[in-house]
């Protein structure tokens, strides 16, 4: 165990003492200074050594345990977790056909995935910020100089994701774009050269986000599925030529909802570094966590600048704002901004400036806290109702976070596309999970919870159960 005298003093002027303790221990573990199995100081001893409240250390340790850095058992000392090595070779295989199974489904119905509830949007505060900036934009703001985005917004975004997601970057690396799709498209254009087999290969989570699949395919990518399980993407299962790009949603995998384990994260980063690949981390809705605090972003533990981090305000505020961002590795920044200029994927300057003010005033964080409480209640009600009414046919996810819930048919021969069409013909807008696979599919249904009022969840789940019964009878 490291002697207490060897722990450095905390920077009290910068605040976030809990985060400093967390990062101090995390970085020592990642750099091998605290090997697997080593006993860590007790929370009381650590608190005395660092001159902080014991609760500060307890919370930091809890974060480290939740993310897999520490392990403990009742009656035993807390120790550094082991990270077993994982072989990174797989059987070479020809890429599977890059054709989506299905592309269109009904929108606007109950349980539609990917759509936030905008009824609680803070109209008055946003209108005030927008009006003030519309009246007082500087001459500098109205020019072409800031292709990557207004400086104040880049700084505000970085301040937020550094504090909440553990992202480490300079504000210059933040590029403002109209959507996550635009960010994925920009990075794909920089990294993928159609006709060059060495740069066409993209490894994609299986199952994965259909829009990302389509955007990457349009950029000329040769998509190769890599399976996900209860620990997230398993890079050891990747097959065929080394990829140029690896697309992942590690904090809240789409659509399964699982969180990538720490050993898998470290293996992914090492694989990308060794093979010269870029990991595209899509952090689409990890702001919403109900069972625990948000897991730190993959980008925050990347020491080789192999991760491009993508986030959006579409889920946290409103899709109509058309604001997203990418945190780009330094070596890709010039090329990314050049492509951005050519494509014209620029967010209007008054929107950017107003959003910077909105964030700096604390309005954004307040809205997140408000919506997190609302969505947590709706997710819990939906999970309970579906388990009560549909548990015989469906294996319902835990619903620990995010705006959608995965459920899997217990009968693996179920045609989830046909079932989804039948359900959606009766006022719903669920999605078949098989449509999110590139290879062999597991049938299931993806349901959105954002607009499902808690008091209405039971009746909606009962209606789905009746429809499932009818489909079973007719089959």
From TrEMBL:
It comes from the Bacteria. SMART domains: HTH_GNTR. InterPro entries: Aminotransferase_I/II_large, HTH_trans_reg/aminotransferase, PyrdxlP-dep_Trfase, PyrdxlP-dep_Trfase_major, Tscrpt_reg_HTH_GntR, WH-like_DNA-bd_sf, WH_DNA-bd_sf. Residues 15-83 form the HTH gntR-type domain. One of its GO terms (molecular function) is DNA-binding transcription factor activity. PROSITE patterns: HTH_GNTR (PS50949). Keywords: Aminotransferase, DNA-binding, Pyridoxal phosphate, Transcription, Transcription regulation, Transferase. In the C-terminal section; belongs to the class-I pyridoxal-phosphate-dependent aminotransferase family. PANTHER family: HTH-TYPE TRANSCRIPTIONAL REGULATORY PROTEIN GABR. This is GntR family transcriptional regulator / MocR family aminotransferase. It comes from Rhizobium hainanense.
